[in-house]
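Hypothesis: this fold can be encoded by more than one sequence.
Test: take the structure tokens below, design a sequence, compare later.
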């Protein structure tokens, strides 16, 4: 096995499937499973132990809504004792002043809050609960007041693809250090999403071109930074969208063909292949199942049965994802497969084959 793949850079843990919202695009396969189905505190600590043996990837507390667990502070403290860096991915609606102080004391490197629209109407309809936009904005402001680094995650689909500039301005005004754009993957609840919400390959390209223009306009693009893209995203030791003036890092997640566009335009695109599932990213469900990423429901093992590092090094699924020569269809023929690779989760959702061609890419290989 290539030594490059022995250590993940980011480990997402779906700490629970329970949540106080009902988002129509959620990646969860289960909705509000009983708390008893979640990994216990002891099992979660064993997972953190594995992270410490795997090169200390950023350990992301995700969900569901991770703040509904009653042991998240204990687990964050345990990770600190082992030197495992942590991050938090939350919908932000449960953050009141006392909670903001607790989060600040937990020592998360960054807290990511999802805003799936630049206004309350757009966001609330997508998230399924009236008032959740205002609650998330209030939570973000409380976090900033507590000096917690914040990141905005936005799922881009038909409901908000015309709001990119407004989302950028909103993230800047809130003092966010990063804006990560998630290109919708139809999995979990998202399988049922209306066709009108799904972007065409041509529109995906336009969204990514917008990102390229933003990056090209920033003299300091390529500054160093480490971002967190909860559920499916990735971090890099080289940010490919850092605004020196606004200190706002831009990133496209579940859109690996950004790397192809960046290469075509001479823009920095980071050091890794676009789709990082199973390569430098790994996902552990609330039941302990291991998946290449939060959007690719192909099980590689279960941490209740064996340590994560064993699964990471021995899974045949992960091994195949790390070999670009195994890609089929136009992704297999593409001259950019070494830096893009196509979204394996989107390919699986469309065809049942995670090595098939990326369905949202309009590029035709030479």
């Amino acid at each position: 096995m290539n030594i490059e793949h022995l250590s993940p850079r980011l480990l997402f843990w779906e700490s629970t499937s329970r949540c106080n919202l009902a988002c129509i695009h959620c990646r969860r396969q289960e909705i509000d499973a009983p708390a008893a189905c979640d990994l216990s505190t002891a099992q979660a600590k064993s997972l953190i132990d594995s992270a410490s043996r795997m090169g200390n990837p950023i350990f992301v507390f995700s969900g569901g809504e991770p703040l509904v667990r009653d042991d998240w502070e204990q687990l964050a403290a345990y990770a600190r004792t082992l030197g495992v860096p942590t991050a938090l991915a939350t919908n932000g609606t449960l953050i009141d002043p006392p909670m903001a102080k607790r989060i600040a004391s937990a020592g998360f490197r960054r807290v990511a809050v999802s805003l799936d629209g630049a206004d309350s109407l757009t966001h609330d309809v997508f998230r399924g609960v009236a008032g959740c936009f205002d609650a998330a904005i209030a939570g973000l402001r409380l976090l900033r007041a507590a000096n917690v680094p914040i990141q905005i995650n936005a799922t881009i689909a038909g409901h908000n693809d015309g709001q990119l500039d407004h989302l950028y301005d909103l993230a800047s005004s809130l003092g966010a250090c990063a804006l990560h754009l998630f290109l919708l993957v139809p999995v979990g609840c998202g399988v049922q999403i209306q066709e009108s919400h799904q972007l065409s390959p041509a529109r995906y390209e336009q969204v990514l071109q917008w990102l390229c223009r933003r990056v090209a306009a920033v003299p300091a693009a390529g500054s160093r930074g480490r971002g967190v893209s909860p559920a499916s995203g990735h971090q890099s030791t080289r940010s490919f969208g850092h605004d020196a003036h606004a200190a706002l890092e831009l990133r496209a997640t579940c859109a690996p063909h950004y790397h192809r566009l960046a290469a075509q335009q001479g823009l920095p695109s980071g050091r890794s292949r676009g789709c990082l599932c199973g390569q430098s990213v790994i996902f552990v469900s609330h039941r302990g199942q291991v998946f290449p990423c939060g959007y690719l429901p192909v099980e590689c093992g279960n941490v209740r049965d064996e340590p994560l590092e064993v699964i990471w090094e021995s899974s045949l699924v992960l091994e195949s994802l790390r070999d670009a020569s195994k890609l089929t269809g136009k992704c297999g023929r593409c001259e950019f497969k070494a830096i893009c690779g196509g979204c394996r989760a989107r390919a699986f959702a469309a065809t049942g084959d995670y090595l098939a061609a990326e369905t949202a890419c309009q590029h035709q290989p030479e």
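The first strand starts at residue 10 and ends at 14. The chain is about 30% helix and 15% strand.
Hypothesis status: open.
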